[in-house]
Amino acid sequence: MSMPTLPVIDLDVFRANPSSPSALVESKKAAEALIAYGALLVHDSRVSEDDNSTFLDMIEDYFAQPQEILQEDERPELSYQVGVTLENTEKPKCAVHEPCLDVIARLDPAERPLDITAHNPDPKCRFFWRMGEMPPYDTEFPGLNAPNVVPKAAHLRDRWASTMEKWGSSMKNAVEELAEMCAIGLGLPRETFREAGKYGPHLLAPTASDLVKYGSKDTILAGFHTDLNFLTIHGRSRYPGLNIWARNTGKRIAVKFPPTGRYLLVQAGKQLEHLSGGLIKAGFHEVVVNDATIEAIKRRSSEHPDRPLIRISSTFFWHLSSDFDLAPIPSLDELARKTNADEITVGGVIVEDRSLYPPMKVGQQVQNELKHIALMA
Ligand SMILES: [Fe+2]
Question: Coiled-coil stretches, from where to where (predicted)?
Answer without folding.
Answer: none
